[in-house]
Design goal:
By secondary structure, the chain is α/β, with parallel strands linked by helices. It has two domains: 1-85, no CATH class; 90-232, Alpha/beta knot (3-Layer(aba) Sandwich). 25% of the residues lie in helices and 12% in strands. It has a seven-stranded parallel β-sheet with strand order 3-2-1-6-4-7-5, sandwiched between helices. Helix 4 links the parallel strand 1 (90-96) and strand 2. Helix 4 runs parallel beside helix 7. The protein is elongated, with a radius of gyration of 21 Å. The two termini are 36 Å apart.
């Protein structure tokens, strides 16, 4: 998803690339953008702005990072410090028993939605390519096993909520997500481990209407995080009892 300028942008009105051209919007291929050198903005034109949060090297050479306009030319440490003042109080945990390639996507989405932290359970190593460098700004913690994650969450009074389409799961669409919680996701394929299912307060399912019984783990995480944002940032109220659909299709993942 392409970045959109923030309302409090600090970028110069037009920052060229240094050769008189104006950067174009990034393409869908980040590798192509990097090769063309057209991501972001060029050197700051005119007198430099004042502030310890600015990076003099970026001001002089341009800022080609994948950051929103608010953070153009900022030092990485300054960006993290500012994000820490506005992160949301929900966490995301991902099981990584088989080196799940979706973790990078989950980290990128967590950064976009202001997640407090991402917790990787199981293998410490994970493929960072899908994170698109957002792991530099997102807190990512490792827990060797589920027991360690449970201990960490218990110390902070955070309930664990699994997200998986399992028998007996509660529909995410009508579940009152708590403001402070840990959303737990299994790896692609097997889903939540038996131990994770056992320790979660509830397991939530995502309604589906097609022929497949599951969706990509990274996509499921994005849906769940956005559900939290809709509830706690935009104050969208949950519907009451599921109404008569008047013949509309029933989710294929509906559980008895």
């Amino acid at each position: 998803m392409n970045e959109h300028p923030a309302s409090d942008s600090v970028c110069p009105p037009v920052a060229g690339t240094g050769d008189g051209s104006v950067p174009r919007a990034p393409s869908d291929d980040p590798g192509e953008d990097e090769a063309r050198g057209e991501v972001g903005v060029g050197p700051w034109p005119g007198p430099w702005p004042e502030g310890d949060h600015y990076d003099t090297e970026l001001l002089a050479e341009g800022d080609r990072r994948n950051v929103v306009d608010r953070y153009r030319y900022w030092r990485r440490e300054a960006i993290v410090a500012d994000l820490d003042t506005r992160r949301h109080p929900f966490h995301v945990a991902v099981e990584n028993w088989s080196h799940d390639f979706n973790i990078g996507s989950v980290v990128r989405t967590a950064n976009a939605f202001g997640c407090a932290a991402v917790h990787i359970v199981g293998r410490r190593r994970w493929n960072k390519r899908g994170a698109m460098v957002t792991d530099r700004y997102q807190h990512v913690h490792h827990h060797p096993d589920t027991e360690a994650l449970v201990a960490w969450a218990d110390e902070r009074g955070l309930p664990l909520l699994g997200v998986d389409n399992l028998p007996g799961a509660v529909p995410l669409e009508t579940y009152p997500l708590p403001r402070e919680a840990v959303l737990v996701f299994g790896q692609e394929g097997p889903g939540l481990s038996e131990e994770a299912r056992r320790v979660c307060r509830d397991v939530l399912s995502i309604a589906q209407f097609g022929s497949t019984r599951s969706i990509n783990a990274g996509a499921a995480a994005a849906i769940a995080m956005h559900s939290w944002v809709r509830a706690h940032v935009f104050g969208q109220r949950l519907p009451g009892p599921v109404p008569d659909t008047g013949g509309a299709p029933t989710p294929t993942t509906a559980m008895p």
